[in-house]
């Protein structure tokens, strides 16, 4: 698998990761119970074929995967069933109040839980244990926080914090689109989102377009700023970064696969190991570029 989105956290590199392999079985994902809405825990990074391996290490990097099982109970179905039961009671001359309605709805949920379909999902996390950086494969703030919370529960303490920049990212990105020179190794892509910074201001989205053009320039002159911007790092990565430093549409380009050419015929596990090593190397380089560009620092 390849990471497609990226939310980054920093933490103290003095955290002891030596006991992770022993602790993981204690926090392994358990099937969601008959009367539970959801279950979350660690799963094998290699998927169902991973057996008992709940982590993978390569140098200073640790690969963890957090799995979830969630019961699917459509709210519309619950409301329909509730309405049917309320109508039956009203036909008998009973008019349940608000508290009774809530109790009836809770009872319905408990009735439906054992028969509900289960949806599975996973979030992967690449942890640079030496530098204190966690790369979480999601653009969802909630999913990222849940993944960090799961690691915190595993270790007992994991004071990880979202990144922030000493300089406003949208100011830097606006300058790039306006014509300022980009850092070495970075070039503009063909996508951006411009917004009027005033509340309720207009939003303009550009895709598959040369960004340094008269049309975009007019929007910048009108006071709009760049909140999302597509970038290319050398010939290895393309991505869209937003002003909150979340990365979306992360794609490893052909140049990133050069080192995998000799492994095309190897076993699946060996190939996945090589892909993991490739990704962690590229993500480390990407973080270095972003850290220098935006003067990244820990969130207070």
TrEMBL record:
Pfam families: RdgC (PF04381). This is Recombination-associated protein RdgC. GO terms for biological process: DNA recombination; regulation of DNA recombination. It is found in: Cytoplasm, Nucleoid. NCBIfam families: PRK00321.1-5. Keywords: Cytoplasm, DNA recombination. One of its GO terms (cellular component) is bacterial nucleoid. GO terms for molecular function: double-stranded DNA binding. It comes from the Bacteria. PANTHER family: RECOMBINATION-ASSOCIATED PROTEIN RDGC (PTHR38103). Belongs to the RdgC family. Its main location: cytoplasm.
């Amino acid at each position: 698998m390849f990471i497609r989105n990226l939310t980054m956290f920093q933490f103290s590199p003095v955290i002891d990761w030596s006991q992770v392999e022993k602790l993981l079985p204690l926090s392994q994902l358990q099937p969601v119970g008959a009367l539970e809405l959801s279950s979350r825990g660690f799963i094998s990074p290699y998927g169902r074929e991973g057996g008992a391996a709940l982590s993978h290490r390569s140098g200073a990097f640790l690969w963890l995967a957090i799995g979830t099982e969630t019961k699917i109970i459509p709210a519309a179905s619950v409301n329909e069933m509730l309405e049917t039961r309320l109508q039956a009671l009203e036909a008998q001359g009973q008019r349940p109040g608000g508290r009774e309605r809530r109790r009836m709805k809770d009872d319905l949920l408990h009735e439906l839980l054992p028969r509900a379909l289960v949806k599975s999902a996973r979030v992967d996390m690449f942890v640079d244990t030496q530098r204190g950086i966690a790369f979480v494969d999601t653009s969802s703030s909630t999913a990222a926080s849940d993944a960090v919370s799961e690691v915190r529960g595993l270790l007992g303490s994991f004071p990880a914090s979202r990144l922030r920049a000493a300089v406003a990212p949208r100011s830097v990105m606006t300058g790039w689109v306006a014509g300022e020179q980009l850092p070495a190794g970075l070039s503009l892509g063909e996508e951006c989102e411009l917004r009027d910074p005033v509340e309720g201001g207009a939003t303009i989205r550009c895709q598959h377009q040369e960004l340094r053009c008269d049309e975009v320039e007019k929007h910048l002159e009108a006071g709009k700023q760049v909140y999302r911007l597509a970038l290319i790092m050398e010939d290895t990565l393309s991505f869209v970064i937003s002003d909150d430093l979340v990365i979306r549409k992360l794609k490893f380009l052909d140049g990133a696969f050069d080192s995998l050419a000799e492994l095309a015929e190897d076993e699946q596990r060996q190939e996945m190991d090589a892909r993991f090593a490739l990704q962690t190397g590229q993500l480390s380089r990407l973080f270095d570029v972003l850290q220098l560009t935006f003067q990244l620092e820990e969130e207070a």
